[in-house]
Specification:
By secondary structure, the chain is an all-alpha fold. The chain has a domain at about 35-70. It is about 70% helix and about 0% strand. It has 3 helices and no strands. The protein has helices spanning about 10-20, 25-50, 55-65. Helix 1 packs across helix 2 (about 25-50). It is elongated, with a radius of gyration of 19 Å. About 0% of the residues are buried.
Amino acid sequence: MLTIDLSDELQRKVANFAIQAGQTPEQAVLEIIEERMDHQSAYAETAYLMKHEKNKKRLDQAVRDIRNGIFEEKELKND
């Protein structure tokens, strides 16, 4: 188990955030940490893909297309 000491001010901020989200402070903190880790994984994957020229060109083109409104929205499927 991991124990983290938070300042009183940060505890108040977390509690207020949790109330707005309908969560306990512990649930809110865990969700924030999980989201941050997911984002970090995405950044690492993108960095890996960008190492290869062909992938880099495809990603760059995809970003340009999205910025120019050229994309198709689809519903996500839960697997």
